Amino acid sequence: MKPKISIIGAGMTGSTTAHWLAEREIADIVLVDIVEGMPQGKALDMTEAMPVVGKDVSILGTNDYADTKDSDIVIITAGLPRKPGMSREDLLVKNANIVGTVARETYKYSPNAIFLILTNPLDTMTYMTMKVTGIDPRKVIGQAGILDSARMSAFIAMETGVSVENINCYVLGGHGDSMVPLTRHSNIAGVPLNKYLPKEKLDAIVQRTRKGGGEIVGLLKTGSAFYAPSAALAQMAEAILKDKHLIVPCAAYMQGEYGVEGIFFGVPTMLGRNGVEKIIEYELNDEEMAALKVSADAVHKSVEKLKSLVSFE
Ligand code: APR
Predict the structure, then answer these.
(1) DSSP code of 85?
(2) What domains can be seen in the chain, in order of their start residue?
(3) What does the pLDDT look like over 267-294, one tens digit per residue?
(4) Is 175 one of the annotated active-site residues of the chain?
(5) Residues 251, 141: contact at Cβ < 8 Å?
(6) What is the pLDDT of residue 1?
(7) Candidate from 33, 83, 129 with most ligand 1 atoms within 8 A of CB, to mutate
(8) pLDDT, tens digit, for every residue of 190-231?
(9) Which atom of ligand 1 is nearest to the CA of 223?
(10) DSSP-derived pairing of the beta strands 167-168 and 187-188
């Protein structure tokens, strides 16, 4: 029997995640949404694509959480996306209600699952999931750093013409405008970025990375990015199911690492069958640590707002 991944929210990111996962043929997939017929229709459509791509994967669409029973991984994408002019924080009140319900319902049926969260504001919704389920924080992981780092890598590739496979970028911190692209640690096949690009170009790429989500929202007008976020989710799910011990930036629960405590925050994590196996601590200079602190303060503020809205007792 294949492992089972349930994706809650069959909208743009949820269904595209199912698509990437089906192509990888690593798990059977359950797509859940509140809208009747839509997850069933998308699942059937994808099922009908499997003979073409030659993948033996079961894809079920449903409105019933009972179908998620005994999932190995639960991916939460349910919630509202941004519209132009909105920040991720503007989604907090509405998405907290949705994520709270979804986390409780899925946990009931899959208490041993690893939870991957995508709904924004990301770091706070990941915190919410841990609180309402009470599960081991290492088994709740937010997707953000892979996406932010991939955006930076894509911009570097566009600027230099080097293969994306040679570009290693690391973006840490919260998934908001104060995220911290680590230019000093990022490199092209081992060569520091500043040997390839002048400072002004690099600074512009850092700024574009920070605003990368907003750039897509501005272009799409009716929703937010979904191809890159869902590709990142699929990479995380595969690393966990295959127990790869893959080191990637993810939102992990902080217990003093990088001087941050009590929130989910983007740091290099080692992903394996137990979720976050380890948080890797880079040696950062004072400037980088100060930037991380600004970002952590923004996440703390958001979590405080959540706590003022929801009682976890
Ligand atoms: N239970 C299940 N599904 C729900 C619920 C709920 N309580 N509430 C909303 N949904 C579903 C919607 O019906 C919709 O199909 O969540 C889906 C969200 O899909 P989209 O609107 O297409 O949004 P998407 O682009 O996928 O973004 C989802 O991910 O990246 C973040 O900021 C983004 O918070 C947003 C989330």
Answers:
(1) T
(2) 4-142 (3.40.50.720), 145-308 (3.90.110.10)
(3) 999 999 999 999 999 999 999 999 999 9
(4) yes
(5) yes
(6) 86
(7) 33
(8) 999 999 999 999 999 999 999 999 999 999 999 999 999 999
(9) 25
(10) antiparallel
